[in-house]
Amino acid sequence: MSRADSGASRRAILRSTAGLATAALAGGTAGSAAAQGSEPDYGGWFDDVSNYDETVDKTGQDTVEIVVGASGNNGNFAFGPAAVRVSPGTKVVWKWNGKGGAHNVVADDGTFNSGSAVADAGTTFEYTFEEEGTYKYYCVPHKALGMKGAVVVGGSGGGGSSGGPPPEPDYGDWFSDVSNYDGTVDETGQDTVEVTVGASGNNGNFAFGPAAVRVSPGTKVVWKWNGKGGAHNVVAEDGTFDSGSAVADAGTTFEYTFDETGVYKYACIPHKALGMKGAIVVGSGGGGGGGEGGEPAGELVWTPGLLMFAGSVVLGMLSPILFSVFLRFKTGSWERPREFEPEGAVVDEKPAAPVAEEAPEEVAEVEIGHDEYDPFGTASLIVVYFLILVVLWIFMYFVEFLGRGPTVIG
Amino acid sequence: MAYVDDYPDASKLVRACFGVSFVALGLGGFFGLIQALHRTNVFRGFVSSADYYTVLTGHGVLLVLVFTTFFIAGLFTWATTHSLERDVPSLTLGWTWFAMMLVGTALAATAILAGFVPSIDMSADVLFTFYAPLQAHPIFYIGAALIIVGSWIAGYTYFKNLWGWRQDNPGERIPLRTFMVVTTMLMWYISTIGVAIEVVVFLIPWSLGLISQVDPLITRTLFWYFGHPVVYFWLMPAYLVWYTVLPKLSGGRLFSDPLARVVFVLFLLLSTPVGFHHQYLDPGIPEGFKFIAMTNTMFLLLPSLLTAFTVVASMEHGARQNGGTGRFGWLGSLPWDNPAFSGSALAGLMFAAGGFSGMINAGMNINYLIHNTLWVPGHFHLTVGTAFALTAMAISYWLVPQITGKRLQFRGLALVQPYLWFFGMTLMSNAMHRAGLAGVPRRTAEPQYGSVDFSGVVGGMTEMRIQIAIGGTLLFVSLLLFLVVMAGTWMAERGRGQLTVNGVIPPALSGPEHSPRIIDNYRVWVAIAIGLIIIAYGPPMFDLVADGLLEPGSPAFPA
Amino acid sequence: MEIHRFEKLWLAAGILLIVGFIATVTYGAVGEGVAMVNDDGGTIDPTKVSEDANFSDPGVEQVGPHEYEAHIVAQQFLFKPGTSTPIRVPANSTVTFYVTSSDVVHGFNIVGTNVNTMVIPGQVAKMKVRFEEPREYGIVCNEYCGAGHHTMAGTIEVVPEDDYEGGA
User: Fold this and answer.
1) Listing from the earlier edge strand, what are the strands of the sheet with A63-70?
2) pTM of the entire structure?
3) Most buried of the four, A204, A240, B305, C12, by CB within 10 Å?
4) Which residues of chain A make contact with C10, given a CB cutoff of 8 A?
């Protein structure tokens, strides 16, 4: 495991912890939820969900996919996207990507439940939403980390989220010979999006899965080879990105982060003629996807809560000094009026020499020497202590410990 | 002439150490307040529950690594120079070790505190025990290593002073306080080897990405090799105060110098080969090694039991010399209005209670009852949290005037402070013990679970939570009182009148001449200590590394 | 070496106390049969727990009359089984737990009992426990394991024998 990997995940952790802490402190200003009139009121449900951006509009589709194990919340503890709006009658398919450990999908109101948490990539769970309403759901083991989502059924609302599906970009005839092209898949609202290289299509494994994807600006797209269909590469038509020479190995990855909006066509050079082409569409262009993905990464947001915390720490540390300075000026001197004076001591009126005078040595009333001293008071106290120890030990061992039900016996 | 005039160089060093130590105490203590209020659900507005663990790491590291090590370094510098009547042997070395420890502290603290700031890609939410595979930022481990190495150099300077003294005083018994410093530092050298190996060989390379995995059980075992003796590193300086200064504060003399030496030798011998008692419930360690650790630990009770007698007998001597009579009446003739005395005495009393909960922890199978429950923090807040911390505060009332040349200020506050600490700790700790028996876990931001019902032994869960919150708050107030007194004294004008204390330590009732000379021959004791460690740790470590130093290995989980 | 006679008496009493403690603990081990978690559980590759024959499908299974084995995986932040589905065992049975971790160090404590162990990645904690009465217990992870540590809990149900249907 390279340092870079842990660094990247550490950044993700920190960014998400930011979201968590800041959200918790600020109490409710989750992400940069676009102030659109149609945004449902989740009542604080997404306060601690770092990847919540706004409700992604996926109305007008028969099937909507949600990734389980998307990047977010201090690791891969997110649903991607966190909040979606679908039409009544839509089948929502949750698909595990194998990351972030074991997950499940459990509705807050009990409407649906995918069962025990599992981790395997490719696991799916589906539910068809007939009734209008807002269905909050979560992953049980990671709920506290922010792995929560919501499906809003019906009502397209005005404002930014338009009624129908986002308009399909005009690819010209780019996809005319691509058998697995089936519209632009909406993968907005996620930090990372995966595209399979060597997917089934075009009379073999000569396809990108999915062929056309819409992502939010700032998303990192990771192309992952599945080892099928021979050697492939990923080359942008306009030269923006290029994975290099074609390779065949399963597990190979190539990634590119798309910051600028636009439509990026790309192809696998050796199999372009067979139809192995794809496109990445970056940007909202019609309501899908949210803004910049929450707070700009890496910026410290001085919420009232964070300010309060920082202020109280500084104040706490300075308080003793402040207090003593306050007392000094209040009383006009560092001394209290009545100070303990050792017998026979002389208090200097003016601080003359810097040498400090020690108090005189203590003089005992009675001198008790080594041979005349028997500490019988101590002996009595020690006997009492001994008895307490014995009683407490017996109580603890035999009553508390052995008396307590199931114990490890092998 | 006070200490500051006789030993100006040493005084500066001691003041620097105490200064850093008190700052760490203040911040660490504030974190403790946050925790006490957060986990009891009294107030959760300071931090989120995820950030609670950053607070917890800060509380642990600042208090038991920074506050303790710096205070002890300062105390030992005073103790050696004063008892040998020789100033520090080398200013360069002195400030070198101080600077090293300070830099280490700054690094580790930065890593920890950066966990609060999201825009900084750095955190160390790994707690004071930093178990792999949870992984902190590299500078956390580097900082911790620097603090330890700095302390090694400090130890060297104490030895250097002793050797110089021995040349000028051939054939004489080592003065008691220096003897105690030397045995403590020898134990420290032996024990820190474990954590040094863990950090330098495994954790730093791993956190830098140079190795991809570590064996969590090996690193854990190396930590606890160090983790038990470290508590004696904290306790033995408290014992030094109780044995040598407390009798004088009581108005009397130390009951027995020889026994004090024997006690410290026993600690040198037995502190380290007991580490497995922190791993009683670890899979992968055979029961036989755990049993040996248990018997060693039980014998380690002996020096503490002996200390109880000797220290109380010395106090009784002082009380009787000043008019105390009766079987128990002499207790009233002790100077309870002297905060240096009252703090030390109350700390000792509390330690007697903490010792008992430690006996339970040590009992191998009974450890099942309380392992990782709130009982454990209940225990160690009595021991390091009071026996060490309250004694440190109490002795500061006596020592800081001598190292600054200024009278103690705000005596009224100082008078109250130890009692407030004792009372607050009684509330908090008893509730923690009982909550632990009910099964409430430690190191947990929100010990309120939907699926788990805790039921108490004596008392209800609500009442325990409230006691912890109130106790923790009182402790924090007491801490503030201490810091106000210290700040006021530090900034007082020098030379205004006479100090109310003097640094004279009367000779013991039974002096060193009554003990065999071999006691001072620490080479013998070191050899035996190493032998015991080889027996206790040799076979188990061999087993653990036999299948590979890094096997079975875990990758990193950044925290 | 000179020691006051009181202190000699106390030394003897102290040693007696210590021996008494050791004897009690030994009685607990030998007489009552309390056994410490040890290395009998063996080791495991922590990165391949889900592929291990024993832990790929963790749960409870019967291995003999009144004898069961429970394989449990602890991870951030749940027990498998235990959290989503309770661990179910019948009353009047002896259950051998095998607990391991697929990520960091966890704890496994059946609250209110003496069943308590560290769960260390790379090691398997093996514990044999006897359950007599039907009861429900909570399970708590009592070793700090990350930001979600305080959410990590589960349940174990000791069901009446007649109601037990087998399986996790």
Assistant:
1) A78-80, A63-70, A90-96, A124-129
2) 0.75
3) B305
4) 379, 382
